[in-house]
Amino acid sequence: MGEHIQKVLYVEDNPLNMALMHHLFKKNLPSVLLLEADTGELGLEMAEQHQPDLIILDIGLPGLNGYETLECLRRDSRTERISVLAISAFAQLSDIAQARQAGFAGYITKPIRVKAFTEIVQGLLAERGG
Q1: What contacts 92, CB < 8 A, 6 or more positions away?
Q2: Residue ranges making up the domain that contains 64
Q3: Which of 41, 53, 54, 83 has a CA 20 to 30 Å removed from the CA of 130?
Q4: Response regulatory domain location, by residue (predicted)?
């Protein structure tokens, strides 16, 4: 039986942030496959299709925002158990508390602190059995 390749879906509408994430994964998490979507709607489709081990979801998306996307993920039996990590430039304690209350597994603020981010992602992936 082949080894499970861990997959992370990154939902982000900013191409610069997407490029940064690609670089970060290539350098710090090279064995993890990074999938990408630039809208919440596409993120939902890709989550259903690819069943990622983790979703990193930008809060400030056009169309379905991060909270609405999370709500849709939780209502779908195919995606309800996937850990979802919020990422946002909103860094107030109230923003973080709101994300936790909504059911995000964690909250990363932009700009990303690479070491902390990598550790959080590795921890969430380890919980999924990787």
Answers
A1: none
A2: 7-127
A3: 41
A4: 7-125
Number of structural domains (the chain) is: 1
On whether the CB atoms of residues 128 and 85 are closer than 8 A, the answer is no
- Give me the CATH number covering residue 47: 3.40.50.2300
Separation between Cα atoms, residue 54 and residue 59, nearest integer Å: 16
DSSP H stretches of helix in 37-113: 40-50, 66-75, 93-102
The reply to whether 2 falls in a domain is no
Rounded to an integer, what distance in angstroms lies between the CA atom of residue 78 and that of residue 51? Answer: 8
Per residue in 27-79, pLDDT tens?
999 999 999 999 999 999 999 999 999 999 999 999 999 999 999 999 999 99
What is the DSSP track for 105-116? Answer: SEEEESSP-HHH
Which contiguous run of DSSP H or E holds residue 33?
Answer: strand 33-37
Residues β-bridged to residue 35: 9
Task: Specify the pLDDT at position 4.
Answer: 80
Q: How far is CA 57 from the centre of its chain?
A: 4
Rounded to 5 degrees, φ, ψ at 70 are -60, -45
